[in-house]
Amino acid sequence: MQYLYVSVVKAKDLPAMDISGSLDPYVEVKLGNYKGVTKHLEKNQNPVWKQIFAFSKERMQSNFLEVTVKDKDLGKDDFVGKVGFDINEVPRRVPPDSPLAPQWYRLETRKGEKTKGEIMLAVWLGTQADESFPEAWHSDAHSIRHLNLSNTRSQVYFSPKLYYLRVHVFSAQDLVPSDRGRFPDTYVKVQIGNQLRVTRPSQMKTINPSWHDELMFVVSEPFDEYIIISVEDRIGPGKDETLGRMIIPVREVPQRIEAGRFPDARWFNLHKPSGPEDEKKKEVKFSSKICLRITLDAGYHVLDESTHFSSNLQPSSKHLKKPSIGILELGILSAKNLLPMKGKDGRMTDAYCVAKYGNKWVRTRTLLDTLTPRWNEQYTWEVYDPCTVITIGVFDNCHINGKDEVRDQRIGKVRIRLSTLEADRVYTHYYPLLVLHPSGLKKHGELHLALRFTCTAWINMVAQYGKPLLPKMHYVQPIPGRQIDWLRHQAMQIVAMRLSKAEPPLRWEVVDYMLDVDYHMFSLRRSKANFFRIMSLFSGITAVCRWYNNVCYWRNPVTTILVHVLFFILVGFPELILPTIFLYLFVIGIWNYRFRPRLPPHMDARLSQAEFTYPDELDEEFDTFPTSKPADLVKMRYDRLRSVAGRVQTVAGDLATQAERMLALLSWRDPRATAIVIFLVLVLAVVIYVTPFQVLEILVGVYSLRHPRFRSKLPSVPVNFFKRLPAKSDMLI
């Protein structure tokens, strides 16, 4: 996209316009109906602005650029001087050309006569690849005040570098409770910033308790937080006494890179809580002690998003990071058919995009009051693993008027898995922007993206498919499942807090939506979607069983005869079985190549069971945790959940029954059934030993493929026998 850039640097020797002998100058840059204004500087005849303006060439309504210096007054602003430019004579700059040097221009009156004062300007034609583009004031944001201009600019962010911190609490010695006549009921409380965790109460109610409990936290560089560890005595319900406390800076904790080695545990002094001033001055000759092992585990990858669509799988330690295998290039081109998100305010949509891959976040500029924004911005990332996902979200900017209490609205989101992309191919496609609301599914428009994955190390990329998805430490010393979700939530909180402090801020609601904070929460809609996913996987097995049943019942005699011939060939030449299977799989793969997907997959409303979801189910999905709904509605949902769980319980019980019947074959729970089984297996052992194996294969195959004339509609004898075996279901209360 072509842009006209105007760099307003400074001015000198401006004439005095006020009675005080000075002026409050500012610059107005006007091109057709578009007008940009610098900030005004009070009482300054040699002002310095250093502001850049960018005007989209396709929206230019004039071939004449006018730069006017004015004096800010309470009433009408005074005219100081102007400079004019013919657009056709403006030079063109294409990076990597050096920046255009600004020049001094003498100010003119409205009649074109030279007047006092000079202004330093640089005017050139360029593209969005110009390094001045991110900092420039854009004609798309011409109605924005300077205070809110930063909220519309493009920006690149980086997530903080996260680590897992492990605190292993072993034991304590010589605790001094206030009441010496009772045994203390102790536990350890560990706090880092907003993260608070406690151990289980010690089973030894003595002054030398032990816990052997392990707590994990998430910390981020530059490690400016402190670890506060205290031993608490539970005196009564809701009443605890602190027996001792210690504070350790996070930056003093040693890092652990190798999975098999733990540093030795250490004894630390516990200090009494702060008391009166005179007690502080006393020299402490005795203190309780606590045995701890604290490590900064740099061999893990800190999960800040779901592993199903993670964009980064690198360990925290830079010494363990994998080499790069390629480059991902993303072009955020445009959007179309957006819905007016500010229709109530008489405006359309102020749209911007956010893309996340790895620890790098990018934000495009905000295009104001349009339903067909065109960004045409390009970004690149290094790729370390092909089995990762890039996420692109579109939002409506609600902070262009300085209202901090409102939240940016979601317009839609797109996820693209890199492993589904062909290398060195440019994918240009419109992706639907779907958002689920409590009122139902809405399509807010379409996002136009250009995507290319360029592989720079083919051997390393192919080798990645045989390596573990996560770093080695996740498998050698796995994190307990009960802590994974809590740690992921804490990591998301740290990332959101750090990015919200940037300028312009990437706000909490944006980070939450991009990272899918509530993905692990219960949703009946997601449960249905996962159930149908499982059923679709079993549909292939069901189709094979249906085909085999048709063969056995001679629905197509020609197919059944061919299956008989193939069966006899494989029995006669068993060495052909495995080659035949693998050759069949090869032919299927080659045949399916014609039907391979030409475009990356996107959000599927039908797969997500979002098209025909009941309003009450959506209302439950968007409910807070804990719930904020009235008691009668919660009771109704609880009863519904009980009915669904009852069906799941029945299926689980049926599976357990079948497994217990298998074990009952030889367990003598049914003496007669077990006697029959062991007699039959003895007979089968003798028959199989005497009879050639190929003869047995032919007999079994011919029996299973027998004609329907020789079949009975009643269940077979083995099935009847199996269903009569005992299970433990009759032992349940």
Automatic annotation (TrEMBL):
Listed name of the protein: Uncharacterized protein
